[in-house]
Each structure stands twice: as C-alpha cells, then as structure tokens.
Amino acid sequence: MKIQFFGHATVGIWSKDGSSLIVDPYESGSYDGRIAYTPITEHFNYGVSSHAHDDHNAFHAVACEKVVESGLHGPFEIRRVPLMHDEYDGARFGGGVDALVITCDGLTVVHLSDVGHEPSTDKIQAIGVPDILLVPVGGFYTIGAHQALSWTRRLKARCVIPIHFATPACTLPIRSVEPFLELIGEYNRVARGFIDVASVNDLPRALILFPTQMP
Question: How wide is the angle at C-alpha 81 spanned by C-alphas 78 and 85, nearest 5°?
C-alpha cells in the first residue's frame, strides 16, 4: 500500500495491484484562496468523502472514475462511523462527519475527517484499531492537538499521521502541526509526502508527511 498526503485532509491510497482511492479532495483556491495547495493531477479509480464541505468533497476538481460511499470497491473496503463536526452536536460547524474506515492489502486506515469532539467508548468500539490513523490536529474547525492525542491513544493506533493543519498553503484560522508533535514526542518526518507500507511492521509510531501539493 502507498499513501500520499496531498495537503489539508486529502490523501491518496494505492493498493499493491495499482488500484487507487482519493479521500476528501480539496479544491485549490477555495475559501477565498486560503486553501492554496496546487491542483491534484493524479487519476483515481475511486473517491470517497467524509462529509459534503467544499474542502473535503471537491470531486469536480480531480480525475476520479467513481465516487463511492461504503462497501467493497476493488481492493478497498470502506465503512463509515458517524461523528460530529463539533462539541455542540454539529450546530457550530454544520452537522455530522463520518470517520472512514478503509481496509486494503490487509491494513486498516482510519480517516477521522473533521471530528470536533472527544472520543466516546461507543465510537472507539465502532471504529476499531487502525494500523494507520489520519487525525486532524489544527483545531478551531476540528479537534486540536490534545484531543488528537486522546483519539490516537484511545484507538490504540499503530501509526498516526496528522492532517488538517496550517501551512504556508493553508491559511485557514487553524494551528500548525507543531503543538501535536510536541505532545506525541517520537516521530518520523517524511519530506517526500508519501509512504509505501508492506506490513504493520514497517510502521513507526508517528509519521509527518510533507504535503506534496505545496506551491
């Protein structure tokens, strides 16, 4: 399996047979230019979105053969676990979001979308134990660093990859990844923005992927 972090909350997943899935595509230049990651030019067999906000659902801006919801699609098995965008039952930031539980090549990847609240026992049980956890860390619209660490620990994630944080190409009112890194302690920083994973034995405790679509 290969995972590429394009920027914001957008990742691509490639299976060992070459099939591809894009998760939560952003639109370059959206939000009055505050999402300034460059357009994504790769072609994908499948696409899935955790919720309908423009920075997570811009399938018009990517080359994707089929947008799916859940179930088995090629090598990708997708489950959805309902969460909330904030701690007020979604009243502040527009309702619910879904955690995406994606299984491929014997590995489970969990994308926590724009979750905005602490983990509860029922949600932890519904999601299960991820091999790779993609967790938002920037705060304001989502959980911040401390809550992201709480989700990571409660889910017993084998490897965590932070997403949804401020960079020079994302000037939304959110924080950088650094507060989360201070909390997580040990991590590997990958400048190329993608990883190839053959088994859980290849995974470090935490990975920081450099967004590949930085201008």
Answer: 125
- Give the H or E element holding residue 111: strand 107-111
Question: Is residue 215 assigned to a domain?
Answer: no
- 95-131 pLDDT, tens digit per residue, is 789 999 999 999 999 999 999 999 999 999 999 999 9
42 occurs within a structural domain: yes
Q: Which residues of the chain have pLDDT under 70?
A: 85-94
Q: Are the beta carbons of 167 and 209 closer than 8 angstroms?
A: no
CA distances from 23 to 172, 179, 183, 201 (A): 20, 25, 26, 24
Element (H, E) at 180: helix 178-184
Q: Identify the DSSP state of 16.
A: T
With beta carbons less than 8 A apart as the criterion, state whether 10 and 33 touch.
no
CATH of the domain at 83: 3.60.15.10
Q: Is 189 exposed, middle or buried (0-12, 13-18, 19+ CB in 10 A)?
A: exposed
Q: Is the pTM of this model over 0.70?
A: yes
In a domain, residue 102? The reply is yes
Burial class (CB in 10 A: 0-12, 13-18, 19+), 55: buried
| Domain enclosing residue 182, as ranges | 2-209
DSSP string, 40-96: P--EEEEEE-SS-STTT--GGGSEEEEE--SEEETTEEEEEEEEESSSSTTTTTTSE
Q: Are 159 and 206 in contact (CB under 8 A)?
A: yes
